Fold this sequence. Notes:
The protein is an alpha/beta fold. It is built from five helices and seven strands. It has a five-stranded mixed beta sheet, sandwiched between helices. It has a two-stranded antiparallel sheet with strand order 1-2. The N terminus is likely disordered.
Amino acid sequence: MQYTHWNLNMKNRFLTLFTTLFLLFSTQTASANSSPLYQLSFPDVDNNPVELSDYKGKVVLLNFWATWCPPCVKEMPSMQRLREKFAGKDFEIVAISAGESPATVDSFMMELETELTFPILLDEKGRSFRELGIRGLPISFLFDRNGKLIKTIAGSREWDEQREVNLIQSTLDQK
């Protein structure tokens, strides 16, 4: 395969990222009030602040993406279908555009064929790259109802495939 060196390099980066995030999130107590997830806040496309603590008690799929990232764009419709599959459950997808302006993201959303009904937030200055150690996009983090990191998912997915649906369902089934 012609991308072997790139794939190995990216795997090493993602392994480093996963280890960093695991250490960051696992050093916190299990208390929902102390979860790093609930410490995060980002504005939406209308510049209204959104505290991720608003999602306490829900399973949260936190996705970092960008409009210039083809795999990010490709996975968006399947994220919407996943959200629809779990409508009425304690589940939310929160997508954070990394390093882009509100105008860029708003324009992208208007051109997208699939209407996205999950929250789209902005990290215009790209602070998530520094603060969370994100090295590549897309990357998603699955948190349980208590804000505990369950899984780090590097790269794009078809979020409505059975493997991903089962992951979300098993996280929802945990009490």
